[in-house]
Amino acid sequence: MPRLGNPSAAEDALSETFRIAIERIESFEDQGHGxxxxxxxxxxxxxxxxxxxxxxxxxxxxxxxxxLEATSAPIAGADELYEARxxxxxxxxxxxxxxxxxxxxxxxxxxxRFLEGRSREDCATALELRLGTFDVLILRALRALRARFPGxxxxxxxxxxxxxxxx
Length: 167
Fold this sequence. Notes:
Distance between the termini: 33 Å
Shape: elongated
CATH architecture of the largest domain: Orthogonal Bundle
CATH superfamily of the largest domain: Winged helix-like DNA-binding domain superfamily/Winged helix DNA-binding domain
CATH class of the largest domain: Mainly Alpha
Number of helices: 6
Order of helices and strands: HHHHHH
Low-confidence stretches: 152-167
Number of domains: 2
Number of strands: 0
Mean pLDDT: 75
Helix content: 55-70%
CATH topology of the largest domain: Arc Repressor Mutant, subunit A
């Protein structure tokens, strides 16, 4: 928890620690200290892996979160409310256009993770992928979405040379 700063990420790291320990139990060699130091090393390594992955994807997730939060900001007056609704519809429309332009696997990964709010494990299971493979897929999906929907709110058409096939 102190390394990751997020209860959900800490739970992910803990479950991954035990999964790895079970998979590699035959490689454990007791050096007189028991299994605890071995589990601690696995947990430390997994937490660092998650921390690095979060540092990479965290920026993308913050960008997407701020983009989605922009549509739900409270507005005081009727005119402002009307303008906000118009902007929200336009933003939602541009987001839908950007999502439709993505590779279907990318669109499905983003929909499962962010629009349905599923856990990474559930998303990986639904897509019949390993968790690490799903993490790579969602990172690529967010990069592809950002290329089509940058932070300034404009919608760029995809570059002619770039293909978002199963990279």
